[in-house]
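[job 4471] stage=fold_predict status=RUNNING
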Amino acid sequence: MKLPRKFWSLGGLLIFLIVSFLPDGQSQEKIRLSHSALESSNAVWYVAQDRGFYRKNGLDVDLLFIPSTTTRVSSLVAGDVQVANASGGGVASAVVAGADLVLVACYLNSLPYELVVQESIKSGEDLKGKSIGISRLGSASDVAARALIRGVGLEPEKQVLIMQVGGPAERAASFRTGRIAGFPSPPGIIHLTQGIPYRILISTADFQKRFDFPYICATTTKSYLSRQRETVRKVLMAHIEATQFFKTHKEETKKIIAKYSRISNENYLEAAYTASVKLYDIVPLVTRAGVETQINEAVGRKPGAQLRYEDMVDESIVRELEKRGFIEKVYKQ
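[job 4471] inference complete, writing structure tokens
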């Protein structure tokens, strides 16, 4: 029996509507996100894009690479970007200055850095009286350098000098000439250099007690969170799925890191993955101790300013996802 043309037209329309409202259909919500680096510590942002976790959660994401904290904060405040990666220190400084920002999740609550030193330095004792090079005072490299120096039982400034050198190229040049004895570096980067004898003296991943520092955090404005809470929830769900993938699919993750960083050096990829996988949190809450340290530093630079943990952190979405069993379900896959 031949069915009437109207039947097929209605059926086609029904199928179109169903597909349009599926997570992978035409109903994707457009949103702009930004991350800050192409190395492994930021991987949760681009793994979510590469593996389709944003789309799975109903988001059509424009993922931007914005390396400058100042520019990312300005983009959030202006509304050009809705959710961005920012460290607790950057957010604390911006909030003290009047920005309407809030941390909603932190995937890495510790700095993924290693202390690269001259090959002749085999212990903390050998580092005494020498200099460690950083980009600038107050930067992540400065914070990491001080933590790593303490990690080998020494006191920064008193027993090991902290020298402001500049960017990676300047630090590498100073290291090559012996002007500095070492420098803090994201995991694996040193493997990309040629002809520079070195050793890794210590890594933050080796610490017995984690060095609390809210480093890779999803940040938005309080006003956007209030208006678009469900959208922010979808972003965090995608990131939690990306974190689980990172932790359980080593070789595929290394390929994704290579794709986005454009670095195919196997030694780098292995070192970067190994260091970061230890530090990614399953439940991405924001470490209070780490935030309060950054608050104290931000307030200390602006006399009379006041700021509390609750003023710049809202973990309620993460806690809801944990309570409802979403995170447990993701990790049981």
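[job 4471] summary: The CA atoms of residues 113 and 204 lie 6 Å apart.
[job 4471] exit 0
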